[in-house]
Specification:
Elements: H1 15-27, H2 29-40, H3 51-66, H4 72-83, H5 89-106
């Protein structure tokens, strides 16, 4: 949330993957935002979206775009599971709908 902060990654068997997603999301924020605006312009206004919901959405879209080895259903499931720790139930339902819709656009081949 703070672009000047140093990110410290705790030891984990998934550290490399998590670091790749976080770094990739930060490096490709403009591309991710344009993809969201292109496919979801009628469904979401990023300027009015809760910051935490936006961060989760951007990371998920990064995975849809660049992590083709991970099935879209797995991406959606994992982000919804993680969001339970940070978001209200209504926001999780909204996130689910948004992720389903953009996954259909970005991963048409699955």
């Amino acid at each position: 949330m703070n672009p000047d902060a140093t990110i410290i990654y705790p030891k984990s068997q998934y550290k490399k993957y998590i670091k790749d997603v976080v770094t990739g999301t930060l490096e490709r924020t403009e591309l991710i935002e344009s993809s969201i605006n292109l496919h979801l312009s009628k469904d979401i206004n990023l300027q009015k979206t809760d910051k935490l919901l936006k961060i989760i959405l951007f990371a998920a879209v990064f995975e849809f775009l660049f992590k083709h080895g991970t099935p879209k259903k797995v991406i959606i499931s994992e982000y919804l599971l993680a969001s339970e720790h940070f978001l209200e139930k209504i926001q999780i339902g909204y996130l689910n709908a948004i992720l389903d819709k953009i996954a259909l656009e970005l991963r048409k081949d699955e």
